[in-house]
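lol forgot to send this yesterday, sorry. struct tokens for the thing we talked abt
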């Protein structure tokens, strides 16, 4: 009849799996400086004049019609 069938092609070579990419090491935490303590308020350096006696209310104004 005809010529014999050619032999089947050889199986492809297995492709090696790519190596997993290693994760980068975690970055070190950034140090946060502690806030400076707020000093307690001292006495008011200038308290101002002492309040005098309460002032009486001014007399009511007359209503002009």
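and heres what i got for the seq, position by position
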């Amino acid at each position: 009849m005809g010529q014999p069938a050619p032999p089947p092609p050889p199986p492809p070579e297995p492709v090696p799996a790519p190596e997993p990419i290693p994760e980068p090491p975690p970055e070190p935490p950034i140090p946060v400086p502690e806030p400076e303590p707020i000093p307690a308020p001292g006495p008011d350096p200038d308290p101002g004049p002492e309040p005098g006696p309460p002032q009486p209310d001014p007399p009511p104004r007359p209503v002009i019609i």
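The CA atoms of residues 7 and 52 lie 120 Å apart. anyway ping me if u want another try
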